[in-house]
Amino acid sequence: MTTELERAEQVRSKIHIKNPLVRNALSEFFGTFILLFIGIGIVMQFILSNEKLNTWINVNLGWGLAIAFSVYLCSKTSGGHFNPAVSIAFLTLGKLPLKDFLVYCVVQTLGAILGSIAAFGLYYDQFNKFAGAFRTIIGSKATAGCFCSYPALHVSNTTAFFDQFAGTALLILFVCVVVDKRNGIPASAHPLLFGLVVMMIGTAYGMNLGYPINPARDLGPRIFSYFIYGSGVFSYHSYYFWIPVVAPLFGAVFGAWSYLFFVGAHIPEQRETTYVLVDEANQPLKLATDA
């Protein structure tokens, strides 16, 4: 065991990336890949089994866990954004440089594309069993929804826009609550809480679109699915495709600054209290502080 650990440390010392942007970009790419590989698989299991192996609550629970463990994966590197909406919120708050934001958006989308490809590969036989040779966007054997969101025909694009705006605003609002150090939430609990927030949003506002609330999560698989379903993946519903890409960005900024204006800026600063610990003879031992 010791030898194995030593080997691991030797490899680590050789491949460790010192450039923070490159290191974080690699984490964002891999983390988004893992998130989509799990998340798309959850949706595929839901659709391709005629909703027998998964139910809607299973989908919400699964995505929540996928978020939680994927963020744990990259919590000590990039922090685990996996979502351009999260990244743009941090950009406007001054927590992420513009260059990093642009790089994150690219690698997140690439990770989402490859994650969806990997999930499709594992479920390829199930696609054939469910729909035969047909690959359709709508209908009883439609499978395009395995990859990205397609609103029902009665859901207008206006409703879809505000659905994505509101859902992402809620996501980023509570992300800000969790990461604000003034709230005193332990860092080790952050990923799990992010997953619970996603579950909450899904159970409240998943009906219209399935709550993508993540431009990379929707656009990446949509790009890949173009090679399976054709141009309809972009032209469907009066070119709906741009809405889950653009609306979350506006919603994220709104959610982040709503938290700051309504709550975050008004949390009192905690004062540090100093205590002197003494022994039985009332002699000072050391100083202790409470924040």
TrEMBL record:
It is a multi-pass membrane protein. The chain crosses the membrane at residues 29-48, 55-73, 101-124, 159-179, 191-211, 239-262. GO terms for molecular function: glycerol channel activity; water channel activity. Pfam families: MIP (PF00230). Gene3D superfamilies: Glycerol uptake facilitator protein. GO terms for cellular component: basolateral plasma membrane. It is found in: Membrane. Keywords: Membrane, Transmembrane, Transmembrane helix, Transport. Belongs to the MIP/aquaporin (TC 1.A.8) family. NCBIfam families: MIP (TIGR00861). Aquaglyceroporin that may modulate the water content and osmolytes during anhydrobiosis. This is Aquaporin. The lineage of its organism: Eukaryota, Metazoa, Ecdysozoa, Nematoda, Chromadorea.
